[in-house]
Every structure is written in structure tokens, then in C-alpha cells.
Amino acid sequence: MNNREENTKINFFKGELKQYKSKGLKEIPSEKVVEIGECLGKVLKEKNVKTTQIRKFLDAVRKIQIKFDKDNVIMLKPKLAYTVGRHRNLKPLMQILDPAIDAGAKDRESFKKLVHLIEAIVAYHRFYGGGD
């Protein structure tokens, strides 16, 4: 996938995720979560992102999963921004997760879909050959 195709797909998925901000991520079909996860996992592998870089963010998300709190979900955004600031090759992750975090903060079920999305990204990143 070249840069132009990559940007087109990322922007398409970003736009789709923004549609769920008001109604919550719980409304997104699981098939779409898998599709986005696969696309982003592949893009991140091509950008030589290490699995541990994504997993660290997933670990922060899982801590919130134990005790859901909307404010803590929203605070994932600056944590993600800091990570991307340190590792510029993670920018596509931020482009997708920024609107997903907004939609995932709506309620517990929406947050669950956010967790599934990040898990799909990690799984497909590994599938396409991403490593540590």
C-alpha cells in the first residue's frame, strides 16, 4: 500500500468513526471494527511500528476497562498524543483512535468496542509480520 492509498483509507475510517461520536461506538458493526483493525494493523506494520508500542496503549485502556470512567477514557487522548510525539510512525494510530476514543467514551458498551478495535489492531499488526 503506497502513502496515498494509506492516507485515503485512514481518512475514510476516521470519517466513519466520527459518525459514532454522538451515538457511541456500540453502534458500529463488529465487521467494521475488524476491517479497521486489519487495515491499521497492516499500515502500522509497514511503518515499522513495534507491537510493544501498541500494547502499551492497550494496557492503559484495559486498566480503565476494570472501572469504566468517561473522564479516564477521554484522558487517553493526551496519553496517545504523547506516545505519537515520541514515535512519529504511530501517527496513523492516533488518526483512527482519536475519534474512536470520543465515541468509546459514551458508555460502557461503546468502550468495549474501543477495546475490541485496539485488540484487532494488535492482532492484525502481528499477523502481517509486526514484531518487537
TrEMBL record:
One Pfam family named in its UniProt record: Csm2_III-A
Name of the featured protein: CRISPR system Cms protein Csm2
UniProt keywords, alphabetically: Antiviral defense, RNA-binding
Keyword RNA-binding: yes
Protein role: This subunit may be involved in monitoring complementarity of crRNA and target RNA.
Biological processes, Gene Ontology terms: defense response to virus
RNA-binding found in the keyword field: yes
GO molecular function: RNA binding
Family as reported in the entry's similarity comment: Belongs to the CRISPR-associated Csm2 family.
